[in-house]
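hey so i finaly got around to running the thing on V-type proton ATPase subunit F from Caulochytrium protostelioides. pasting the sequence first so u can double check i didnt mess up the copy paste, my clipboard has been acting weird all day
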Amino acid sequence: MSALQQKDRVLIAVIGDEDTVTGLLLAGVGHQDGKSKPNYLIVTAKTPLPKIEEAFADFASRKDIAIILITQNVADDIRPQLDAHSAAFPTVLEIPSKESPYDASKDSVMKRIRAILGSD
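ok and heres what it spat out for the 3d tokens, dont ask me to read them lol
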């Protein structure tokens, strides 16, 4: 990837519960592209799984997103899709939510690190 392409990746996308996404939006992460597509998805108990999968696939394919933050409980719902994502950009980082603590044993990035270090 050239430096020009990396420079164009300036956004952070967020997928998670309302409190997490709202907090990050208040911190200035929110953005809408020219087609009014936001860089975030608020997931509730009523959010259908295909909508979460579609949002992740969309964020993963966008050339303006450098990082995708996803709460670990939502990441668990789309774990096969996360594990299949191997591109360096956008980087996918799992974060805790208010309702569920972070578990490093589930994190796809941590799994790859353990595999590289031979401790898996």
